[in-house]
Amino acid sequence: MKYKRPIIKKTQPVYRITPSTFRIGAQLGTTAEFTDRKGEMWNLIKNLDGRTVDEVVSSVRMSFPGLSRDDVLDGLRVLDKYGFLDDVASEVGVPSRYLPNVRYFSASGNILRSTFRTNLNHIWMWSSPARFVAICSGLVIDISIAALLILILPDSSPWLSSALSTIIFRIFWEFNITRKTDARWILCLAFDNPLLMITLKKGKLALVVHLLGIAYDVTLFLLWPLLFALSSIGLLI
Prior knowledge:
Elements: E1 6-8, E2 14-18, E3 21-24, E4 32-35, H1 40-46, H2 53-63, H3 69-81, E5 85-87, H4 99-118, H5 128-152, H6 158-173, H7 182-190, H8 204-232
Antiparallel strand pairs: 1-5, 2-3, 3-4
């Protein structure tokens, strides 16, 4: 075990969803959900308060004598695999005024890409309406621009047709659910399940999903230039 005094990263909240289910993290794409009917994992996490690994193992085994040392260490490895662990020993000697930055950057390796893509920190802690407003804002803007163009330009305008074809391309692009697009985020929120954002990397299903995504992208890239060219010369709308 590479951690001396493992703790859950300060940037990752831990909260219950049901008596047997809890989540770590509150941001799209970096949240993990655990089903823990016996409470073993929950107990392990509550013991990650800066104690040594041996102390954590002993405390967990006192509550759950049926668990072996390797079982507890396996639980720590699962948390480490998801990127949720930090080592309180790494903060020793760091001035208190710098600790927030240390904690942020210790998590940034796992959440930076998602933060850059969405800029939605701790979205799972928001109300459901607020989540949908944030995720749907891009589609709402595109649809609003399309409606505005229809209102301010004559129907026969080739420019209007070209602009609308571009916006329609953008909207259809966001419905490729094989990628982390707006439509997939909406499904994730609709089912209240952050695990829907996990990208499959191995197996036949992952290959099928990957090929469907490529087919969707290729179809859009082939159709859009054709529609744009036709609309530009006034053959559409």
